[in-house]
Design goal:
mainly beta; 4 helices; 19 strands; 40% strand
């Protein structure tokens, strides 16, 4: 007999997630079941599933258990963690008017401030995403470092990788998950389903990578992302952070920028040698029940 599960669908700048509340740690879905939920033809449709788990450590607000659309486990999701904050606030998991949330993820604890409407529902969230990881070994990438930051930290800058689609230059940054950013004249002209898929799984990235195609414009940094385990998504919070950092490190932009994605705009502020702050919206789409 199928089991029924309640869910809430939320999105951050079009990056959408199925939320399943499991405060007693009783739900354990397989990778194939997660993939079925995310299927946009036969399931609910989403870029990932997020389980709302209880915090593992006292004083924190909850544990975000995130799964990619293919069912694989992911360390972190920037848009997902903003939506997680909205779920905690809107559904009373945290006390009303709690000023700061400390959300546990597989990439560490993320501290989140937020704005709310007159009914106390979360509108926007600002997430301290922590410091970017630049060491090639930790990103991880097999590409060798070829540059130093102003503070002397080694990183991979504009390293060329050949492909059947031509050569692309990548700057590598981890925001708790691996990103490879390439700057192009027109990100809309990229055949992302083929180019992104090739680099996501190429030998340079032993744990695969999220691939960002970015173009620096007057109104901000325009970007598209091919997410590891998902394909192209309308937005990627960690990808926006990684792209903002990469633009700064390569001298293409300052440390604070609007990142313009297909699903909306995120504001990224990087303190060199310190943290990245990401600000953006979180919205609820609908709720319901499904059976597996």
């Amino acid at each position: 007999m199928p089991t029924a599960y309640d869910f809430v669908k939320l999105h951050g700048a079009g990056n959408d997630f199925v939320f399943i509340e499991d405060l007693e740690n009783r739900i354990d879905l397989s990778s194939s079941e997660v993939a079925r939920i995310c299927d946009r033809h036969f399931g609910i449709g989403a870029d990932g599933v997020i389980f709302v788990r209880p915090p593992r450590n006292e004083g924190n607000s909850g544990f975000m258990d995130y799964r990619n659309a293919d069912g694989s486990i992911a360390q972190m999701c920037g848009n997902g963690v903003r939506c997680f904050a909205k779920y905690l606030v809107d559904y009373g998991i945290v006390e009303k008017n709690t000023p700061l949330l400390n959300v546990e993820t597989r990439a560490g604890v993320k501290t989140i401030s937020y704005t709310a409407d007159d009914d106390g529902k979360l509108l926007t969230a600002t997430v301290d995403m922590g410091a970017p990881i630049l060491s090639p070994r930790l990103v991880p990438t097999k590409l060798a470092f070829n540059a130093l930051t102003d503070l002397g930290e080694a990183f991979v800058k504009d390293a060329s990788i050949e492909s059947p689609h031509g050569a692309f230059d990548f700057t590598c940054v981890s925001m708790g998950n691996p990103h490879a950013v390439t700057f192009v004249d027109d990100c809309e002209a990229i055949d992302i389903d083929h180019v992104g898929a090739y680099f996501e799984s190429c030998d340079a990235f032993p744990e695969k990578a999220n691939i960002e195609f970015a173009a620096v414009k007057q109104d901000g940094i325009h970007m598209r992302v091919y997410e590891r385990g998902c394909g192209e998504t309308l937005a990627c919070g960690t990808g926006a952070c990684a792209t903002g950092v990469a633009a700064y490190l390569t001298g293409r932009a300052g440390a604070e920028n609007d990142l313009v994605l297909r699903g909306g705009t995120l504001h990224i502020a990087y303190t060199p040698g310190g943290s990245v702050l990401m600000t953006g919206p979180a919205e609820e789409s609908f709720k319901g029940t499904f059976a597996l």
